[in-house]
Amino acid sequence: QVQLVESGGGLVQAGGSLRLSCAASGSIFSINAMGWYRQAPGKQRELVAAITSGGSTNYADSVKGRFTISRDNAKNTVYLQMNSLKPEDTAVYYCNADGVVGLSPSLFDSWGQGTQVTVSS
User: Fold this and answer.
1) What span, in angstroms and rounded, lies between the C-alpha atoms of 13 and 85?
2) End-to-end alpha carbon distance in the chain
3) In terms of Cα–Cα distance, which of 96, 93, 94, 91 is closest to 109?
């Protein structure tokens, strides 16, 4: 029903920056929250940052002051600007969105396929 496609991951040196993008497509009526999660090898998936349709944001303590989440509601797209990257930021980053879809409205909660971010020391 709703597809999320991420882009922007890659390899960067410590202290560098990357910008992730995630575009949602499908029979979307409205999107509530959009967010970024990450999962490092051997660890559980964790919330990195989230943003509501009204623009309220929430960040993990480990990324506050370094990462910025934003969204373009007209494009159903969420971004994650990552600055001052550290080796411990290395993980697969996943996009998530929830909202309402379809002519007979129903709720959705979708995930992207993930994009690898690797930070070298």
Assistant:
1) 8
2) 40
3) 96
Residues 99 and 46: their CA atoms lie apart, in Å, by 20
Instruction: Kindly report, residue by residue over 63-92, the tens digit of the pLDDT.
Output: 999 999 999 999 999 999 999 999 999 999
CB 82, CB 31: distance < 8 Å: no
- Phi and psi dihedrals of 26, rounded to 5? 130, -170
Residue labelled with tokens 């995630």: 22
What pLDDT digit, counting tens, does each position of 9-59 carry?
Answer: 999 999 999 999 999 999 999 999 999 999 999 999 999 999 999 999 999
